[in-house]
Structure to design on (357 residues):
């Protein structure tokens, strides 16, 4: 019971109460309606301080006072008390963001989109959660089944927003892997890898996190988990290529393409679009597409949006070239390539595949 009490006091302190305030509130929860002297005796707060502590809790709105002799106090409903404390932090967050934006307007502008270091497991997981939360069209992720289960709710929310999710799970335990398969085999394109590897998370083909464990000390209990935050468009393809050749292709597919590809999917990762288009066409399903990208002509690049039907796909034997042939609604034919394409007509930034069933 003592340990539970201490943990509860810790959490209340994280929400902004000081130690004595947290002790007094918990004591009121335990005792019910009580006098200041009873609260002081049960909580260990000095009598000289108890009246001030109770006054501060009353100002915060999480306890109530009865004007009797002696005065009596009671705690308000805990769920409401936590709401009050949380609301304070939400308001503070809003104000802080406004002030930070005002400060940053005149700040020094430096191109720092390269590689950043994130240290500590909690910080890394929070950064990955933020990356997933801000994904708009696509997410590719490879990690252990345990880490992916830890992120499962965040990934499911992304899927609910229409994000196209591609997963590779490193198998550590049958139970964890089976649970992951049950959750995602119909909602994401999921493969299982029996061998561990660095974790990779890439959102919208524009920002990524590579999750590494780095031992900075010889003692096994003194280790710092480290991740690379990759923001530079020149570096990101390195990790995207690593995901494709070393994680995606060697792993075993568990998702049924027939179930996963029945509805429209949007892709930022071009090779995945070509793979899925090839599968759909091979089953006899016609395929409409909406494309955003750059028309490459005479050394010039022009932003274009195209709509039409995919009539052919090409994947080179070494899986380095991926093409789609699109016939637009106006009858024009274009050869689509991915980012940094050279010989194709259109460099594709985003493509939505729409099966016609």
């Amino acid at each position: 019971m003592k340990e539970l009490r201490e943990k509860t006091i810790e959490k209340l302190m994280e929400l902004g109460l000081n130690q004595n305030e947290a002790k007094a509130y918990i004591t009121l929860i335990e005792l019910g309606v009580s006098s200041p002297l009873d609260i002081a005796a049960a909580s260990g707060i000095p009598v000289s301080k108890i009246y001030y502590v109770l006054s501060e809790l009353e100002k915060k709105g999480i306890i109530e006072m009865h004007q009797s002799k002696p005065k009596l106090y009671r705690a308000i409903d805990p769920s409401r008390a936590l709401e009050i404390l949380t609301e304070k932090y939400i308001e503070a967050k809003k104000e802080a963001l406004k002030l930070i934006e005002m400060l940053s307007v005149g700040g020094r502008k430096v191109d720092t989109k390269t590689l950043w270091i994130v240290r500590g497991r909690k910080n890394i997981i929070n950064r990955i959660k933020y990356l997933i939360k801000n994904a708009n069209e696509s997410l590719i992720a490879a990690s252990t089944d345990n880490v992916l289960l830890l992120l499962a709710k965040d990934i499911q929310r992304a899927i609910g927003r229409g994000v196209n999710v591609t997963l590779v799970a490193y198998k550590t335990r049958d139970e964890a892997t089976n649970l992951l398969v049950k959750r995602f085999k119909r909602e994401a394109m999921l493969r299982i890898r029996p061998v561990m590897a660095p974790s990779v998370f890439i959102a919208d083909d524009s920002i990524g996190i590579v999750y590494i464990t780095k031992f900075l000390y010889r003692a096994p209990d003194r280790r710092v988990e480290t991740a690379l935050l990759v923001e530079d468009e020149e570096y990101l393809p390195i990790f995207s290529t690593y995901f494709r050749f070393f994680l995606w292709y060697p792993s075993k597919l568990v998702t049924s393409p027939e179930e996963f590809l029945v509805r429209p999917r949007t892709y930022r990762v071009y090779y995945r679009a070509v793979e899925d288009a090839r599968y759909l066409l091979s089953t006899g399903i016609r395929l409409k597409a909406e494309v955003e990208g750059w028309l490459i002509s005479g050394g010039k690049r022009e932003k274009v949006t195209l709509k039409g039907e995919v009539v052919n796909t090409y994947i080179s034997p070494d899986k380095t070239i991926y093409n789609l042939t699109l016939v637009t609604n106006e009858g024009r034919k274009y050869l689509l390539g991915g980012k940094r394409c050279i010989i194709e007509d259109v460099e594709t930034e985003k493509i939505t595949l729409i099966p016609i069933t």
